[in-house]
Task: structure prediction
Amino acid sequence: MRSTRPKPLHLLCGRAMVLYVLDALPAAEIGRAVVVVGHEAERVTKKLTEDSAGLRLEFVEQTRQLGTGDAVSVGLTGLPDDDLDDDLDVLVLPGDTPLLRPATIDTLVAEHRASGAACTMLTAHLEDPTGYGRIVRVGKDERVARIVEHRDATAEQLEIREINTGIFCFRRSLLAPALRLVHPNNSQGEYYLTDVVEVLTDAGHRVVTLMAGDPDETHGINDRAQLAHAEAGLRRRINAAWLAKGVTMVDPSATYIDTTVVLAADVTLFPGTILQGLTSIGRGVEIGPGCRLVDCTVGEHTTLEHTVARHSTIGADCVVGPYAVLEPGAEIAPGTHTGAFYTPNIATH
Result:
């Protein structure tokens, strides 16, 4: 299940942010994902249905924004009662953590099942935890007692550096009853999912934590600066993966590749290359500098320089550009040398 306030379709490298969170799920053997939607619900549902693959999605709408606890209560209605089992677990993930890795989810689920806890939550240690809920521990064993939101914390609690990431694994049979005991007694007048932790511990149930190895992957996106920071991190991750597979990048910091792009071996990318959408690049291709390709196919051993193309097909052994512009539907025959400032004529009907 994914639960968050409405941040519907912020884009990272050309994709809706929540798709990266959904991408982290299949490795954890997730059978079903319930997406809680609110603002622009119809648009979000359509986009995720079109672009998510290999995962069964259910959508439920939170018509009134009453907090994360309410969102999860609404989300539980998307899970069928006929498979209710004490052994089943529910993952709750915010939709704005695009750097979250599948391995982190797998480790969280494994820790939860091994511990037998009612709730296992992913935490992180931040030097500056401003804005995040703090993990309050008590006793000699420093067991988790509750989570206190930043705006509701005392001066002493604000000194705590261990924060709530909003990523939880719950025993399903305990989650709904605990949510019914949550009350909006806070500065926002909302139902906080984090209050479930105190409900469970007060009832004698065990709550455990897993510390994130890399706090960056748990960061949410609340403004344009955080969005840019996340995009930079995602771009570094994507580029490192392609470099390891034999793609050459003259300057990885100036190379932009969507997760949906497919590159063959021995491709060379020069600075200023932007590859987006369902773009596929053949073996031995050289692209750049200053190229942007969106939903394009490029054949083997072709060279492109200062070329902009959308929904186009470029054959093998071509030389395209400099300063070529290919409109949607353009097809460049194999072996073509376009010359400079090339713009093909596209027949319309």
User: Anything to note?
Assistant: The chain has two domains: 11-218, 245-332. The domain at 11-218 is CATH 3.90.550.10 (Spore Coat Polysaccharide Biosynthesis Protein SpsA; Chain A). The helical segments are 17-23, 41-51, 68-76, 102-115, 172-179, 195-202, 224-244. Residues 2-9 have pLDDT under 50 and may be disordered.
